[in-house]
Write a structure and sequence with these properties.
Helices cover about 65% and strands about 0% of the residues. The longest helix has 23 residues.
């Protein structure tokens, strides 16, 4: 009887381990990838978009962590940067693909995006195809755009948002130290900060009207990459995390 009980317990633990392993490794592997010969055979953008949809049965059963990785490794993510401003580009891009729509519905999306964000290293500024997530400069911009969206921030508690701001400040400092990140590549880091502050009803009334206007335009359209404007927002972040 004791042996049978131990065997059942072992089987249960083994099953749990397998399930957890599957949940952590269930990101979708796109069958056709950008730059391959198959990719070059596509006749138009419509065919590319169609090839980059995740089958619905896989999508609905995918863990949120796997879904985050699926989104970050999307073959067409670079098209975001073709728009006049990043926010419009992001919204247009997300509207075309089911994996992004699904991620925006998940209540643990923010937590899982931050988990991946923490793992990303700023010194890997060149795309590394041997990694699950390519830590390229534009990959950073991509995940930071995602983390700055109101729907994502609303899935996070205030303490989680503070943790996100702390991590973002670390990333900003590392980008400065790296020397390979332009102000364009740093802007989305600051965007996370201002949108967290806005999400927590932070008041920018203590800065002069012209600077406040620049901050508002940056928040809405991600324009005005002036260093002094970004620095104002960064200064406010330190006050927020120490509240």
């Amino acid at each position: 009887m004791k042996t049978k009980t131990l065997l059942i317990s072992f089987i249960f633990l083994l099953f749990t381990f397998i399930v957890n392993a599957q949940e952590n490794n269930d990101a979708y592997d796109y069958p056709v990838k950008s730059g391959t010969n198959e990719w070059k055979q596509f006749k138009d953008t419509y065919e590319m978009i169609k090839a980059c949809q995740v089958p619905e049965d896989i999508l609905k059963n995918m863990s949120t962590e796997g879904l985050v990785i699926t989104c970050l490794n999307h073959p067409l993510y670079g098209s975001i940067f073709a728009s006049e401003n990043l926010q419009d580009g992001f919204e247009s891009f997300v509207g075309h693909f089911n994996c992004f729509k699904e991620l925006l519905k998940r209540q643990d999306a923010g937590k899982n995006l931050m988990k991946i964000y923490k793992k990303m290293e700023t010194n890997n500024y060149a795309n590394n195809k041997n990694k699950v997530i390519n830590d390229g400069k534009f990959r950073f911009t991509f995940i930071e755009l995602f983390l700055s969206q109101e729907k994502i921030l609303n899935t996070m508690k205030k303490e989680e948002q503070k943790e996100l701001v702390k991590e973002t400040l670390l990333k900003i400092n590392k980008k400065h130290e790296n020397g390979n990140y332009s102000i364009y590549n740093q802007a989305t880091s600051v965007l996370i900060i201002i949108r967290v502050l806005k999400n927590n009803n932070y008041d920018f009334s203590d800065i002069n009207s012209s600077k406040r206007e620049e901050v508002e335009i940056f928040n809405k359209k991600i324009k005005f990459y002036k260093k002094e404007t970004l620095d104002i927002i960064i200064d406010k972040a330190n006050y927020f995390i120490n509240q």
